[in-house]
Amino acid sequence: MKTPIALEPVDFQSMQDKVYDQLRTVLMRGGFEPGQKLSGRMVAKALGISEMPARAALGRLLAERALIQKPNGTFAVPVATRQRFQEVMELRALLEGHATFDACSHIDGPGLDEIRASGMRLTQAFRANDLASYLDYNQKLKFSIYKYCSSETLRSHIELLWLQAGPFLRHLSVDPKKSPPASFCDDAINALIKRDAAAAAEAISKDIRSGMEFLLVHGKFAEDNPEIDDGLAFKLRM
Question: What is d(CA 189, CA 138) in angstroms, rounded to the nearest whole number?
């Protein structure tokens, strides 16, 4: 009797991971609006895949609190209430300051070059009044620092907070030229170049808190029990 060839279920897991990674990236960049509904069918249709890996990916994001689930089984992006926004941003300031302090002694020459380049692009986006690019390069700059943090646990928690903060920041943000003039990101970059971990950590924390305080004044927040809009369109790419 011939020995049967073992089959390994790699395709489904690979597809689920791809869907999850893309949804995660879109959420962190604010590609979905607070309150927007998502379903396995919607995601599957957008990506041209079956519903099973799409639902599995949404379930993983639900477990990470990047999504909530309605009684009818539909998933939704959490709404930006004032309290939730402030909690997430305060935690970001705390954890990202720690990550910056730790990363400072580990950043090499190419890493500093990448950080400088992101800082220059951030400044250019600010001067061009390009909100989308401004937010993208703000995220890129910060994560180009945090990837040098030696604590994988700390990096994971920062990513979880960004999953919640991304939609808030993108859709609460206003004209970048109306934002506070203080450039804490430039201060952080200069401190990293000088290997001043404490100053770099303080600058990153100040940058996050100044943005939070500005948006708490100028942003429009949802009521405690808002109606969830299920008519918002979205696009995904594999």
Answer: 12
CATH number given to 82-218? 1.20.120.530
Domains of the chain by residue range: 10-76, 82-218
pTM of the model as a whole: 0.83
Say what the pLDDT of residue 13 is. 59
Angle of CA points 94, 98, 104, to nearest 5°: 145
> Average pLDDT of 150-169?
94
Q: Alpha carbon of 3 to those of 6, 8, 10, 168: distances in Å? A: 9, 16, 21, 56
Measured CA to CA, the distance from residue 32 to residue 38 in angstroms comes to 9
What would the CATH number be for the domain defined by 10-76?
Answer: 1.10.10.10
For the stretch 87-124, pLDDT in tens is 999 999 999 999 999 999 999 999 999 999 999 999 99
Contacts 24+ apart (CB under 8 A), 13-16: 15/49, 15/53, 16/53, 16/56, 16/57
Looking at residue 102, its pLDDT comes to 98
The amino acid at residue 165 is A
